[in-house]
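Batch 3, record 17
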Amino acid sequence: MLRPLQQRAAHWITRRLPSAAIGRKLSLAGTALLGVLLASCAANTINISGSYPSPLVRKIPITVGVYYPEELRNFSFTEIDDYTGDDQYIVNSGETQIELFNTVLPALFENVVMLDSLENRSPELDAVFVPAIEEFQLGLPQKTKLKVYEVWVKYNMRLEEPEGEYIADWVMTAYGKSPTESFQSVDAGVQDATVVALRDLAASFTLGFSGIPEVNEWLAENSKL
Amino acid sequence: MNRSIRSTSSLLFLTLFVLLAGGCTTTEIDEFRQGATSMSSDGSIVILGRRQNNNYETEGDFVNCVAGVVGSGKDGISVVPEREFLDAMFPFFEPRTAPMRTGHLKELMDMDVAATRMNEFGIQYIVWLDGITQRSQQAGSISCTIGPGGGGCFGFGTWQDDSNFEAEIWDLNTLDTVGSISTDAVGQSYMPALVVPIPLIARVEQNACSGLGNQLKQFINGGS
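Prediction for the assembled complex:
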C-alpha cells in the first residue's frame, strides 16, 4: 500500500528537482537545523538597562576626577548551569553601571571630571574616585526555590589624592530582588532585580559617603564639610 | 426532547453551583484609630509598599490597585503615584533607607531637601502597605491529551488564596501614626475540566484591595 505512494513521491521529486538541487536544498535544511539546535544550547545574554533618579542631597563642594576601569565598563557575569556545567545566562551590566555612576556622582559632588586614564590627573582636582566590582551573584527562583529573582553585588570604592596617595578604600554591597510573576521571562526578572540592586547601591553610597571614617576625616581636614 | 432539556438544565445547575461556590471570598477588615484625620482640598497622600522583608515584598500591582480605589469616586483622595514619589524622594524611600518608624520620619523631615520636596507634593499622609497573598491547600489533578481526532482535558483542581495586608497611616503634620487598617481575605478557587478547563477563580486579592482601599479612603477623610 505504501510502496506505490513512496514510488510516486520519489518520481515526483526526481522529476521536479535535479539531483544537484536536491543536494543543495538538503544541505541548506541541515545547516538551518544545526543552527536551531546550536542556538538552543547557547547561553542567554541579558543586557541590563535602566534609568536612575538623581539623588536629593546637598552637594559636597569638591572637584572629583572619576576613572571607570575597563572591567567595570564591560562588566559581565556568567551564570553556570548546575547540571551541564555550560554557560546558562550572561548578564552584561557594565553600561548601566556607568549610567548609574554618571547620575549619582554629579549630584553628590560640586564638580566631576571624567578621566580617560589614571595617568592624566589634573592638580586642580581635590580627589580621584575609582569604583570597581569585586563580586556579582545571581539568585534564580529555579535554583533558590524562592519566589524572587535576586542580585547581589560587592563593590570596592577607592578615593585617592590627585597625586595618587590613598585617602580611603571601602567595600560596599548592593542587593536587589524582584518577585516572580506569571508568564515573566528570566530576562525581565534579572533585569528588574539588577536595577533594584543598583538603586540600592546609589542610595547607600549617596547617604553613606561622608560617613566613611577616612573620607569624613579627609573632608574635615580640607574644610569641605 | 425531554431528555435533552433535562440534561441541559442539570448542566446549567451544576455550572451555576460551581460558579457560586467559586465566587466565595471572605474578607475581614480591622481598623485601629489613634488620631483624628482630614484632607484639605489641595492635599494629597502617597501609598508605599514595604519591601524590606527577605522572603517577600509587597507587590507593586497591589499598591497601585489600592491607590486606584482610594483615588476614585466622589470622595476620592489625590494619590501621588508610588514610582513618581520614590524617584522624586530618592534615595530616602528605598528598601534599605526607608523610614521604618515615625522617629525616622522626624529625622528625615529635619533635612531641608526632603521636607521641601515633600511639601511640593502637598503630602499630608503616608500610607505604608505590607503584606502578601499566599496559596495553600492545593489539591486535585487535571490531565490533558491530544490525538489525531482532537484533544481534551479531564480532572478537577482546587486551591485556596489568602491575602493578608496591613496599612499603617503616618500623619506628616504631627509626624506620628494616626492609625492602621488590616485586611484578611480568603477564597477557594476551582478548576473543573470536562474537555475544556473552566477556571472559577476567587478574586481574593482584588477583594482585599477594594476592601482596604475603601476603608482607607473613609479613614483618611475622617469617617470611622
